[in-house]
Amino acid sequence: MMKRMILVIALVGVMMGNKSFGDGDGEGLGLMFGGIILTLPNLVFTGINIAQANSPYEHSGVIPSIGILTGGLEVYDGIKLAILDRRYHGNNEFSSLFVFVGSFTVISGILNLTANKKPQDTRSSWNLYSFPARDKSMGMGMSFSLRF
């Protein structure tokens, strides 16, 4: 529920674009708000994408797809904010941060989706077994197998 709410707030902030909250200096606040809200989830998606890309197991494509979408939104937000800053001769370092974090999230999502992950064969196993003992009772044993 919280993830959805954060995503909705971020999308509203990005859709607000360069609409003004007032006259003069407030034009980029919508872009700043959208970019700041998207930065933390994008960093989380990037970490998950890198972890899943390095994992030998298969994962669903939901997280990388959402990461590509939110990363693209943040890149768009950063580029739009940079254009707005140049138009009004402002100096805003956040636009570069938004473009960097968003593009890194998009790249890691694409790498996660395209990684060739095959299930890893199990090379070792522990097995329990039973056997009849000399006094007609049941004995238990454990075996360890390792394939080369």
Supply Rg: 26 Å
Mean pLDDT: 77
Looking at the structure, what is the overall shape? rod-shaped
By DSSP, the count of extended strands is 2
From the N-terminal CA to the C-terminal CA, the straight-line distance is 47 Å
State the order of secondary-structure elements, H for helix, E for strand: HHHHEE
Number of helices: 4
Strand content: 5-15%
Helix content: 55-70%
Structural class: alpha+beta
Low-confidence stretches: 18-24
Compute the number of structural domains: 1
The major pleated sheet works out as: 2 strands, antiparallel
Widest sheet, order of strands: 1-2
Report on the structure:
The two termini are 47 Å apart. The chain is built from 4 helices and 2 strands. It is rod-shaped and about 95 Å long. The protein has one domain. The protein is of the alpha+beta class and 148 residues long. A two-stranded antiparallel ribbon has the order 1-2.
SSE layout:
Layout lengths: L1 H15 L12 H26 L7 H26 L6 H21 L9 E9 L5 E9 L2
Antiparallel strand pairs: 1-2
Keywords:
148 residues, alpha+beta, two-stranded antiparallel sheet, 2 strands
Short description, anyone?
The protein is an alpha+beta fold and 148 residues long. The chain contains 4 helices and 2 strands.
